[in-house]
């Protein structure tokens, strides 16, 4: 079984581009916009002073959206394991390796990011609420461990920004320079 199907080529393309199924395209973009929104919200929140009431509201929203995106990422990983991807267009081996490495690191970051945030929240007195539902705490109030996990969370955030830029730059390079219609695989 495959998750790809053929579609008509974009104007100027030589051959039809193999595509992902519509549901997986939608999942890709939901995750992408969710992560970009979470990164923006996270960067905004860290600049807010402690004790500001809106900060707690934004923090709880960040946690809930983050865990929702995490569940979507897990769903995407299961689909990726279960089904074949459309084949990549011909490209140099180093480009194929760069694409594979970047995508692999994106998946690692998309899993490690919410886990480190959840663990950081487990080592404070507030814990985590998922859309208002309290989740189990896996720790106790410990400033050192909380700082460690939130430090990891922050480092992954910056790494994720770099990986997203590389991912988008690679897709745009293929679309505008190589003109191999790679981007059409994931466009709605």
Automatic annotation (TrEMBL):
Q: Does the keyword Coiled coil apply?
A: no
* Short name of one Pfam family: Ni_hydr_CYTB
- Which compartments does it reside in? Cell membrane
Q: Name one GO molecular function term.
A: metal ion binding
Give the protein's cofactors: heme b
For this record, the Gene Ontology CC terms, alphabetical, are: plasma membrane
One annotated GO biological process: respiratory electron transport chain
> What is the organism field in this record?
Paraburkholderia rhynchosiae
Membrane-crossing residues? 20-45, 104-123, 143-169
From the UniProt annotation, give the residues forming the signal peptide: none
Primary localization class, coarse: membrane
Ordered alphabetically, the record's keywords are: Cell membrane, Electron transport, Heme, Iron, Membrane, Metal-binding, Transmembrane, Transmembrane helix, Transport
Name the chain's protein. Cytochrome B
Q: Which domain of life is it from?
A: Bacteria
> Cytochrome b561 bacterial/Ni-hydrogenase domain: from which residue to which, for each copy?
19-188
Membrane protein topology class: Multi-pass membrane protein
Q: Which family does it belong to?
A: Belongs to the cytochrome b561 family.
């Amino acid at each position: 079984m495959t998750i790809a199907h053929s579609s008509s080529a974009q104007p100027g393309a030589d051959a039809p581009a193999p595509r992902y199924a519509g549901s997986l395209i939608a999942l890709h973009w939901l995750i992408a916009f969710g992560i970009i929104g979470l990164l923006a919200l996270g960067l905004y929140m860290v600049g807010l002073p402690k004790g500001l009431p809106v900060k707690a509201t934004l923090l709880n929203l960040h946690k809930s959206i983050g865990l929702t995106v995490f569940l979507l990422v897990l769903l995407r990983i299961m689909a990726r394991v279960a089904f074949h991807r459309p084949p990549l267009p011909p490209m140099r081996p180093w480009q194929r390796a760069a694409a594979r490495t970047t995508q692999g690191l994106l998946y690692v970051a998309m899993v490690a990011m919410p886990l480190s945030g959840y663990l950081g929240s487990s080592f404070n007195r507030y814990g985590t609420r998922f859309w208002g539902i309290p989740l189990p705490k896996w720790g106790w109030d410990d400033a050192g461990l909380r700082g460690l996990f939130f430090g990891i969370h922050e480092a992954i955030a910056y790494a994720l920004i770099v990986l997203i830029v590389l991912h988008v730059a690679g897709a745009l390079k293929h679309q505008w320079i190589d003109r191999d219609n790679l981007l059409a695989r994931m466009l709605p």
